Amino acid sequence: MLGGRMPRRLALLAVFVLAGLPHAHAQDSVAQFYRGRQVTIVVGSPPGGGFDIYARLVGRHIGKYIPGNPNVIVSNMPGAASNASLAHIYNVAPRDGTVIGAPQNSAITDALFDLQLGNARKLRHDATKLIQIGSATTDHYVCIGRADGPIKTFKDALSQEFLIGASQPGTSTRDYPAMLNHTTGSKIRQVSGYPGTREITLAIEKNEVQGLCGFSWSSLNAQRPDWISSGFIRVVVQEHDKGNPEINKMGVPLAVDFATSPENRKIMELVYSSETFGRPCVTAPEVPADRVAALRKAFMEAMKDEDLLAEAKRIRLAIDPISGDELQELAGKIFGTPRDLVEKTKQAMEYKAP
């Protein structure tokens, strides 16, 4: 009896070993590729802003979880609301998994609008084909205003002008307040052309402008951690369809509740859906599947890294990661939005001074 059992056990063991060989081979292949190489994270925003801060945090920790442990560096390629960097990744950069993009999440809606143009498309890349690696957190955008300014609540902005700083078209600081004017009847006047949120917050300090919209809550806490506690600014409204638990406790209302029609609320919800992408990392569609899987796994492992979490806590960055698979599925749903709603949303995001 004993002699009969042993061969069967050995046979089963051999089956398990052989079954694991393809996975092990794939891991070895990925490690062999990345060993001694350099991975570049290309940030589509200027240095010092929220997207840059998150990308550099990822860059400092993800390398130890990528098979082969490549060196990871971060560079900035701002322009066209992150679309310049995405065009670089899509058309120019190596498509082998050594270049990762860290665009603004508004690039998703930009791509959605561009998709409707057919042969007249303006973007030099197809964002529907980009591979989602993951995001460090879901974003929650807000409008903030100086406490000594005339706008104390969002209702005030419905009856008097709210002077804010803004960046270029295609960014949340410019497009979100433009949409608020259209969908809620607010009277937000923009002073545009600032490179990013770092420069706009400086303008608020100098009283050049009264506030800022389309500003990430996590970026506010990271860049200006004392603004809330000191009472220098107040949060006027949440630009999100559900709100942030911490901000909800402050009694700050949701912008969607001020929509002047059910259709306008749908427009706002579509735009705010891109906030789920938070601080996205993407790569080119041609990257081999085994390297994509390795990068996605490494990203999520890095998000659990004790050193990363400690650093994030120290600089007041929220970490609530979303996997690349989840983001890929969400992107597919967004890009499947009916054409008529997309067109109305695009029109709503065109800024018209009050």
UniProtKB/TrEMBL annotation:
Residues 1-26 form the signal peptide. InterPro entries: BUG, Bug_dom1. Keywords: Signal. It comes from the Bacteria. Belongs to the UPF0065 (bug) family. This is Uncharacterized protein. It comes from uncultured bacterium B7P37metaSE.
